[in-house]
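User: Could you check the structure of this?
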Amino acid sequence: MLFNLRNRHFFLIDLFLLALTPSIALSLRLQLPWDESTIQPLLIYTAISLIIKLGFFVLMGIYRQFWRYASVDSLLTILWAVGASSLISIGMVYAMYGTGLLSAPSLPRSVPFIDGMLTLIVVGGTRLSLRIMEYQSGGGHTNPEGKRLLIAGAGDAGQVVAREIHHSRYIDDNLVGFVDDDPAKQGTVIHGVPVLGPLDELPQIVQSHQVDEVVIAMPTAEGAIIRRVVSLCEEGGVSVKTLPGIFELISGEVSFSRLREVQIGDLLRRDPVTVHSGRVEELLKDKRVLVTGAGGSIGSELCEQIARCHPSHIIALGHGENSLYRLPGKITAWAKGIKEDHLDLVVADVRDSDRLDMIFKDFQPEVVYHAAAHKHVPLMEDNLVEAVTNNIEGTRTLVNHCQKYDVDHLVLISTDKAVEPTSVMGMTKRVAEKIVLMAAQESGKAYVTVRFGNVLGSRGSVIPLFKAQIAAGGPVTITHPEMERYFMTIQEAVQLVLQASALGKNGEIFVLDMGEQVKIVDLAQDLISLSGLTPEEDIEIRFTGLRPGEKLSEKLYTTAEAPREVYEKILTLNTDASGLGETFLRDVDALIQSSRAGEREKALQTLKQLADLE
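Assistant: Sure, the predicted structure tokens are below.
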């Protein structure tokens, strides 16, 4: 019955009880029977205080609260409302004494103070009783069939999970306790469950308490700590999940039902690089920004982060209409600082010079990010025409229009495969880098290049393939046991691109210091383990041999490029513009023509020459 109480019911309860509290206060102050001289002043005070109290409660939103889920903030609101109304009531009593409306000792001056305390007990108690019943109805449940859970992290995030496990009627799992490295928390009890020990004791705790699953509730922890917990869970033979990021906790989006599997990005074998600089926002604020390949994983993340810098317009250019069609919803959800009418979706091919001319004439972009490219190495080995025309001709066409329309900033997204390339894709990106460098020399503009490693979570990443193979029961296929690559997150990649556009002056190549390369077989083993399976026992890892154009490892730069740090974890390379002139452009034209004519061998020879391989 109490669960069905609404605020209108509380108003009536308050009206009845608060009409009685002055009489109770007087009874506590004076023994019955009262002197007849106190009755009239008591009625006057009761009427005045009742009006003041209820009026304050309405103004301060007491009757707009949902008391089944009352929080400390709700109780503080009651405290302020009762305190303020009581002080005014006391002031009214003393004013009535001063005007002679009340005469001492008709109503003791202590009565309003006692009444205030009684009011706090009445108003707070009725609401708190509802909250207590809600708490008891959902809490403390046990289900013999439910999983036994252990929370890694007894901080704010861990307490959010604990509360939901205890009090959600939709969760049948049982919370065993916490593990946490904070010495002050050892041996304490949080939400009725103990902190059982530090993280290093997790395998023993899992065994002794028969834990079925560990929930990592450390959304701001570094990757090294997450890897440590996952390793300890593997040692204890228990599955593991983790909470989303802290921004979702702040926005109130986190619930136990939103726990997700540990992602491979959590296990990046180095600390993620975060770039903070006001220079990026200064560059993009109120600017017209063009992004090619805007529907892809990198392009869409670029649009999201650019939107946070409050440009006047984002011109999102892409060849695939479906990915572009979904982009406005993503931008609206990710970055509320940009209006949808400031996002222009343009379906176009960067190889189409006439179409680009229309776009540049209509939108007059001031900053251009060129993310459109073909990136799959084995696929491009068999599709040289597309690789050359898209990656080289498309880049040249775009650069020509940037020069024609006096664009101040251009960033080409390249790849580590452009360094001493062995693949068609790598060679085309190396030639694209040269095209941008030549345009920078000719124009004196801030046209620069950014080289990526492999981007976790992007469409071309190996991770989605591994996940699909694991879901199908295996095998997970890897070309070579010694294959290794540099890895970065999508967020890191886009931060690097944006920072390069702010730092770049003329023709530089920027790379991110990504630490050591990671073996592909290690990533595969991590993914298999995070799926609750055992590598080689449950899921086979099969080596298939190197594919055409593949290398065992990649380089971010050559020795001659002599990297130097220009910003934290961001390196710039020496660039050589020698040999970039009319002859270079004629050779590029010849390459495009021979490719389109289907003259593969001739085109491949020219491509190697332009990429400095012959």
